[in-house]
Amino acid sequence: GERLLFFFLGSSTSLFAAICILIWLPCKDPATFYTGYFMANFCAFRVVLSVALTLWAMGAVMRVCEDNSINVNFLLGVDPRCRISPNFMFLLAAMLTSAWIVVFAMYVIDYKWMVFPELWVSDAYNKRASGAFVLYPLSLLLVTAALALTPSRVCRNRYKRALLGTVKRVFLAPFFAVSFADNIVGDVLTSLAKPLQEVPAAWCYLDGHHPLRTEPVMRFVVHGSICPRWGRLDL
Known about the structure:
- This protein is mostly helical and 235 residues long.
- 65% of the residues lie in helices and 0% in strands.
- It is built from eleven helices and no strands.
- The chain has helices at residues 2-24, 35-39, 42-67, 72-75, 86-113, 135-149, 157-171, 180-191, 193-196, 198-207, 214-223.
- The termini are far apart.
């Protein structure tokens, strides 16, 4: 198990480096390549990447507690019947990371070298623009939702509902008694404040016109988000 885990981590690091090289390589038809359009959907990719990194972190924390004989389930008041292990968290993280690497690499290759035919380009930013580019982050978000919602014999729905109940108590803390587990979840949510800022930007991108028109692209270049003023966090 350990060898397989470290082999995957090493392979993923190499593939991330390969993606960086793809981004650095010169593109086809530089006259139509625009960095603002290329990066406009990165917020949606970052949402999924943040979920994957969170799963890796949860698995690592569980592994450290397990190796040091810390009964984390008892401390957090987890159902004793729960059999979620570090390896289960690593499996979910590896699946999501693999999907992210494949889909993001496909997007980079498609945008820079125009591999697939363009879709819905009659009212677009330029001739490189394509409505197909939204399908890449959308497919990753669907994979993330499927991993979260698919029934599992290990992570049963009652455990997922219990976690959502903890989040609810954190948000409504003045009206509920807050346990030690709730306090930990609140601390984790505070640490996730920066990644959560990507959610409104991702929503604005997915809910916008595709392919992108000139106005949202210019808005992204100026503000780092295609959201209108009411949807940005730079007010």
